[in-house]
Fold this protein.
Amino acid sequence: MSRAQLEVKKLVKGFNGITALAGFSCSLHQGEILGLIGPNGAGKTTLFNVVSGFIPPDQGVVVFKGLQVTGMPPHRIANLGMGRTFQNLRLIRQLSVLDNVLLSFREQPGERLSNVFIRWARSRAQEATNRKEALSLLEEAGLADKTADPAEDLSYGQQKLLSLVCCLAAGSHMVLLDEPVAGIAPEMIDRILGIIRDLPGRGMSVILIEHNLDAVMQVCDRVIFMDAGAKVSEGTPDEVRNDPRVIEAYID
């Protein structure tokens, strides 16, 4: 197998004497979908926050695409091709659905003042290309009829879908999805899972946190069960689902 796209090595993180990550290690390969499951407080979101640069680890190393990114600020890690969603979504709620997607494209010519005045034709051409791509992504996601609506007017499930579309617009090579189908209607779950399942075909790798075990079993190539900041079980979805420690945790 090729070198891992992401390598997490012996991460340790504590908060006020409570250990959130206890020497946690894992890897992710190109085109793979990895699921993280476990009880609340297991350290799953803390892992995402450390990997994406929002909080520094106390110990350990994060390597993304062969580069050590441990402690690197989030925007630099994002520019390397790592995208993520959040449980609280972080959309710009007053802006339209289309504008949220347009703002997600990286390295736009209009971000440089010189391009606005000197290379304005290039800027306008790039804006037109981005708009076309954004509309195409929204069409694929079933949100084409919502392009002019403020993001805050969407249902919760549609907002989760929009946050995933924004990751696609950013051109991420790997995405961290934090509970992408939690608390939404079954038909929206199917739509979001369909998009996630297709991400490797777009050249993307995925790590997802999810309490919906059926969803995890449908889309993931490999699953890790976490508890108390440590890896308890790892394997195929069937192997992890049938692990007595996992069964006990979810039954109890």
